Amino acid sequence: MANESRPCPCDIGDRFDYGGRGQEVQVEHIKAYVCKPPAGSDKAVVVIHDIFGWQLPNTRYMADMLTTNGYIAICPDFFVGQEAWKPSNDWASFEDWVKTRDAGKIDKEVDVVLKYLKEQCGAKKIGVIGFCWGGAAVQHLMLKNPHLKAGVSLYGVIRRFEDKHSLLHPTFFIFGEKDDIIPLEQVTLLEQKLKQNCRVDYEVKIYPGQTHGFVHRKREDINPQDKPYIEEAREDMINWLNKYI
User: Fold this and answer.
1) Is residue 15 assigned to a domain?
2) Considering only CA atoms, which of 82, 137, 81, 130 is closest in space to residue 104?
3) Which intervals hold domain Dienelactone hydrolase (predicted)?
4) Per the residue annotation, which of 75, 212, 216, 226 is the catalytic one?
């Protein structure tokens, strides 16, 4: 990796000043942020947060964006009460910290969330998106959960699941060209493995000049040079969900 002392560059970017239009709910043992479209919908998307947790305003902004596109959006606390990472934390402790929050061990929580969406929200078709840690979780779910229709993994850490590529559902992978934690050779290898092993639709797309977290951790007004790519990636994400959910 580019920098072992800072193994995740998720602190690059901007913290949005955003309150959210949804509400916090308790779903069995999990807290979650939920936002619903005014016209109602039977389509839903599970939003999986990055290392900064389910309360990060940026992630709620993305959940609300899904709602404006006709989806029920839910962002559960997949750390289940454990503290989210803080920018002030010592990066030397990150690997120990993340070992207690395994993106490949969220199946119990996902089952609870899917049950809630179906029984309490009337959702019939459900997809999933995730950022960084959550992007890796999306890849995990696309490999094994039969109840999801499609997924979008945004700069998911490839090395977490680098040997598994037999996806069950259409999956869109978003990467930044200048992402220090996910080198382009890893992305190329992912594409090769998917081509060899994957029997469902997938797409891997690299956005020029973009760093880790660009879709939800950069503000267009502060980063005007990145605005076209931020908007393009968000549009690509929505189009993928619209196509398969």
Assistant:
1) no
2) 137
3) 30-244
4) 212
Token readout for 40 is 């109602």
Structure tokens at 185: 């050779």
Q: Can you name the residues that pair with 73 across neighbouring β-strands? A: 35, 45
The CATH number of whichever domain residue 118 belongs to comes to: 3.40.50.1820
Contacts of 160 (CB under 8 A, 6+ apart): 103, 104, 136, 139, 140
Q: Are strands 23-27 and 30-35 parallel, antiparallel or unpaired?
A: antiparallel
Tokens for 72, please give them.
């029920």
Q: Is residue 7 part of a domain?
A: no
- Give the domain range for residue 30: 23-244
User: pLDDT of 114-148, one tens digit each?
Assistant: 999 999 999 999 999 999 999 999 999 999 999 99
pLDDT at 6: 46
Residue 94 within any structural domain of the chain: yes
Q: Which of the following is catalytic: 11, 50, 77, 179?
A: 179
Query: Does 50 participate in catalysis according to the annotation?
Result: no
Residues 72/123, Cβ–Cβ less than 8 Å: yes
- Known catalytic membership, residue 75: no
Number of H helices, E strands in the chain: 7, 8
pLDDT grade, residue 18 (50/70/90)? confident
- Among the options 132, 140, 165, 226, which is catalytic? 132
Closest CA to 107 of 66, 60, 148, 74: 148
Whether the Cβ atoms of residue 173 and residue 190 lie closer than 8 Å to each other: yes
State how many domains the chain has.
1
- Tell me if residue 64 is catalytic: no
Query: Is 6 part of any domain?
Result: no
